[in-house]
Amino acid sequence: MPDSDFHQDDLDLFQQMMGDVKPITQDTAEHKKTHQVSEAQLAKREAAITLTEQDEEYLSIDHAPMLKPEGIIEYKKDGVQEGVYRKLRLGKYPIQAKLDLHRRTLKDAREEVVAFLRKAMRMDIRTVLIVHGKGERSNPPALMKSFLASWLMQIKEVQCVHSAQQFHGGSGAVYVMLRKSQDKKLETRERHQKRLG
Questions:
Q1: At what angle do helices 143-154 and 106-122 cross, to 10 degrees?
Q2: CA 5 to each of CA 2, 13, 14, 17, 97: distance values in angstroms, whole numbers, following the listed order
Q3: Element (H, E) at 101
Q4: What percent of the chain has pLDDT over 70?
C-alpha cells in the first residue's frame, strides 16, 4: 500500500470522527488559580528577621531606600497605639540605652545594631536612642541613616521608630521602641487582671 493512500485513509477516518464537532469561536480559556500558601512561604513573605536569629546578613548592606540628611524617619507597626507613638515621637519616654554609630562601616553598624537590640530585649529595655548622624558629607548623603531606617523596619521586635527631638540629636538620631518581652506582657496582664478582679 503506497504511503499517500495510507495518509488519505487516516485523514478520511479523522474527518468522519470529527464530523459533528463544532469549532470553538473563542480561543482563550479562563484559568482560576487556587493559591495555597505554606507556613514557610508566609514567614518568608514577611521578610522580617527576629533578633534571636544569629544571621544579621538578612539585613542588606547593599541596598536601602535613600533618605535626605534632614529627612524624618517615621515607622509604626500595625497595632501600636497612636498615644504610644506620639509619646515616643515627642521624646517623652526615658531613654534606657543609647548606641552611637558615628564613624562605623555599614557592616560594623549592622552587627552593632543587632547586638545592641538583642541585649536591650534580654534586659527588658524598651526605649532606646540610636545616633546615626545626618550624613551630610557621606556619599551618597544620609547613607548610614538610610540603611539604619531600612534595618529597623525589618526587625520584628521593633514596634515603632521616629527621628529624635532636637535635644536628643534631631534628624541625626532615632528613637526605637522594642516590643515587650513575654515576661513583661504576662506581668502587665496579671496586673490588669488584679485591678479588674
A1: 40
A2: 6, 12, 14, 18, 92
A3: none
A4: 64
